[in-house]
Amino acid sequence: MKKHVWFILLISGILLTTSYYGTVLAKGGKDREYYETRGDIVWEVPTDSKVIALTFDDGPDPTYTPQIAQLLKQYNAKATFFVVGSRVNKFPEIARQLSKDQHELANHTYSHPDMRKISSAKLKEEIIKTQEAIFQSTGVNPELFRPPGGYYSESVVDIARQAGELVIMWSWHQDTRDWSDPGVKKIVNKVLNNARNGDIVLFHDYGGNRKQTIQALKQILPQLQKRGYQFVTVSELMKRYGKTKKVGKGD
Hints:
This protein is an alpha/beta fold and 251 residues long. It is built from ten helices and eight strands.
């Protein structure tokens, strides 16, 4: 009997965790296929071309973001930075430099709230405030939105769309979990052992000590380049190879 109860609790925990990180379930019971078919959320862009999109969440950070940007420059790599609006306002010069270097800045909310607890009105405010922060520092309006924790729902999709942004996740086989400091080798192996054309890879440039991320990139970038991969922004990946629809305000 105890084993049976333990098993139920374990499965329940897995489902809750899976739902929060968006890997299988979404709030309201809609699965990934539902959103992909509608073109509401992008996880990756399957293609025969050897392209891959590197993404970095939670910054900008004055210590780690410039180091990451320097590494990317060495390999002529363009990336997408899903920035937190309050940090853009705190470090506008870093956001400005990323934009000058032709990286893409995308929306990751203003304060990185718990998406399970935030109201629709508050989420809309978070997205708009981040749009304003990015525009004020770079003169560019972001077109992509990644919800903190990877939590998505029809409400999240609708609010992002109203703001003119498309929800972007990441390839499930390319979640490096670098935020948990798993070790450089695990980060490197996760990316290199699973690399596929059109992948969207998840890294972080803030949220703790990102030295492991930087050390891992020093191995990942040259190895993928040797395999013939080109590093592009998420928008470029979709523009050149995707079939996703253009999102406009009020759609």
